[in-house]
Design a protein that fits this description.
297 residues; alpha/beta; 13% strand
Amino acid sequence: MMKSLLRRVVAALGLSLLVGTVPAEARAPQAARPALWEVKDPDTTVYLFGTIHLLPEKVQWRTPKFDQAVASSQQLMVETIIDEKNPTKLMSAMASLGMANGLPPLLARVPPAKRPALQAALKKNGMPPQALDRMKTWAAAFILLGSKFRELGLGGGVEGVLKGDFSAQGKPIGELETNLEQLSFFDKLPEAAQRQLLEGSIEDNKAMTAEFGGMLQAWTRGDVQGIARTFDRDLSESPAMQQALIRQRNANWSKWIEQRMAEPGAVMIAVGAGHLAGKDSVLEMLKKDGYKVRRLQ
């Protein structure tokens, strides 16, 4: 369960550069109606859109109501900004957090029974094993997960499209966390959890396809309760992860929104759908502080 949770967390964070983009699969376009909310007062509107960071390209997720919210927003806020054309900032963050001396070989960080699968994944990835040996376990797992996600036909999510829209119209784009802040959440994980993530990165495609298929279906239906049940169930096994990856970040973001409500205008906030679902969601924190949250779709 923890391995699937950690993969979901990777999908729920804005780490699309580590996944990359892939050609659209030869499948019929799938219509989606993901959840969208608004918080407003007489002169301010904040739209809250739950995203999925790994998405087959032919999913049709835009709706007239969503496009109307985009058109009326003067600014876009995402979890973190990743410049795919110039990834220096992200690579610098990875290098500063993800490398260490004196680490055991990567193969030694999985049980003997898992080593043939890890060796096969390393060969398929093409990176020299010595380079991955110098990486902390979570960083090496990210590299291998990126290869696995591309294999499954999962590419960048909706944030890239939104950033393109806002940039084309000359509207500013901001981030709620820096690349370094976001990666630090994984760097603080216990080594045991990092090794579970590494094992999860080499699981067979069938299991991972079913897992992400379930996540995608809940998102396309706007099934917020289904998303909440998944995260609540998995995170109940690790209170420390729940606090660091969900509660603390949601508290930070809800505070940002409350401060933004003091300024006039409209802004769209696009963050992983898991942050807008469940009892510890950004939405529930805003409600507790007296804000009215209205679902638009």
